[in-house]
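Researcher: Sequence recovery benchmark, item below. Answer with residues only.
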């Protein structure tokens, strides 16, 4: 700015095109900030009220967890009878025999424990659903003289090629699900 004869500071002359460009860029930045804030608010509101959809990535994690659980059981002498067996009552991840017992195994895999340990997701209704699945399976196969139990295998991923596996035998008995 330059001092004039009257002592008042004059603003340097700016072209109209420069003023328009500055206004457009300021407006664009302001609109971008508003849009980002609206998207953030919408995303946080959505995550609070709408359950997350299963993504390809989480399906892949689940499939890898089920594969690891099947290897874990086989290594310990279980015979894997079925994987991802489905009936009118739902699906069971693994059906296996262990000596004179048939185990219906639910596999839960997570990347971390920030939402709790995977086995904490079991409820009384899930136990009842597993009982219906077991009845349907036994009707289909005509297996006899085997005790039935419901196991949970919880897997927490520790690294790219490591995980912690916890096998809870007979975890879904009536008093354990409460």
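Model:
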């Amino acid at each position: 700015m330059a001092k004039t004869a009257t002592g008042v500071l004059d603003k340097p002359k700016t072209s109209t095109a420069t003023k328009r460009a500055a206004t457009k860029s300021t407006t664009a930045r302001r609109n971008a900030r508003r849009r980002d804030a609206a998207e953030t608010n919408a995303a946080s509101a959505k995550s609070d009220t709408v359950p997350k959809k299963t993504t390809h990535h989480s399906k892949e994690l689940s499939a890898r967890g089920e594969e690891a659980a099947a290897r874990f059981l086989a290594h310990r002498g279980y015979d894997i009878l079925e994987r991802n067996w489905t009936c009118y009552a739902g699906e069971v991840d693994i059906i296996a025999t262990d000596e004179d017992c048939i185990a219906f195994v639910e596999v839960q895999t997570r990347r971390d424990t920030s939402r709790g340990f995977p086995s904490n997701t079991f409820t009384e209704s899930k136990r009842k659903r597993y009982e219906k699945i077991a009845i349907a399976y036994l009707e289909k196969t005509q297996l006899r003289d085997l005790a039935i139990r419901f196991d949970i295998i919880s897997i927490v991923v520790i690294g790219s090629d490591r995980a912690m596996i916890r096998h809870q035998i007979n975890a879904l008995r009536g008093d354990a699900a409460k």
